Backbone:
């Protein structure tokens, strides 16, 4: 057997041993909330253009099936776009598949892929659409039942016959039962 094959086997064994030693949040139900900074990337949403402002919010709950997978539902508000033409605002509900990868003691990387139902209001009108969303994040476990979560999520808005991206950067608290 060659030296490189031995090194590969030792590296795989060490990675598996390290992954099994990483504590994870308890499996089961969890809830959380976060506060966020929105970043509207649309140049013009139904006659409204300007700068992102306001505060984004999200309340969520889910079920963690194992250390690597959860389903999560949420209600969110994406702050607003303020400037010429007034304000544009969006809020809605979402369902996400959440991949979780514990990578160090008490740390977990998150990846999300989901769908959202969004109501966008701008220029005195409103529009409702179903859109894709995705995100990345990291979670630090304070205990077996409480964690701090930081996330970036992208909502692909489709309102008033226009497509635009809205990013949301958030920090929040996650509690499992």
Residues:
């Amino acid at each position: 057997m060659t030296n490189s094959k031995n090194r590969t086997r030792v590296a795989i064994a060490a990675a598996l041993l390290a992954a099994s030693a990483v504590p994870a949040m308890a499996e089961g139900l969890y809830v959380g909330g976060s506060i966020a900074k929105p970043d509207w990337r649309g140049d013009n949403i139904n006659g409204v253009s300007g700068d992102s402002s306001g505060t984004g919010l999200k309340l969520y709950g889910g079920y963690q099936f194992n250390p690597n997978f959860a389903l999560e539902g949420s209600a969110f508000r994406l702050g607003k776009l303020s400037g010429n033409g007034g304000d544009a605002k969006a809020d809605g509900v979402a369902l996400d598949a959440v991949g979780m990868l514990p990578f160090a003691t008490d740390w977990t990387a998150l990846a999300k892929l989901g769908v959202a139902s969004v109501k966008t209001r701008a220029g005195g009108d409103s529009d409702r659409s179903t859109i894709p969303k995705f995100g990345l994040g990291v979670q630090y476990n304070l205990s077996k039942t409480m964690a701090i979560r930081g996330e970036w999520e992208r909502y692909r808005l489709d309102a008033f016959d226009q497509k635009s991206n809205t990013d949301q950067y958030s920090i929040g608290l996650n509690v499992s039962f």
Q: What stands out?
A: The two ends are 49 Å apart (CA to CA).
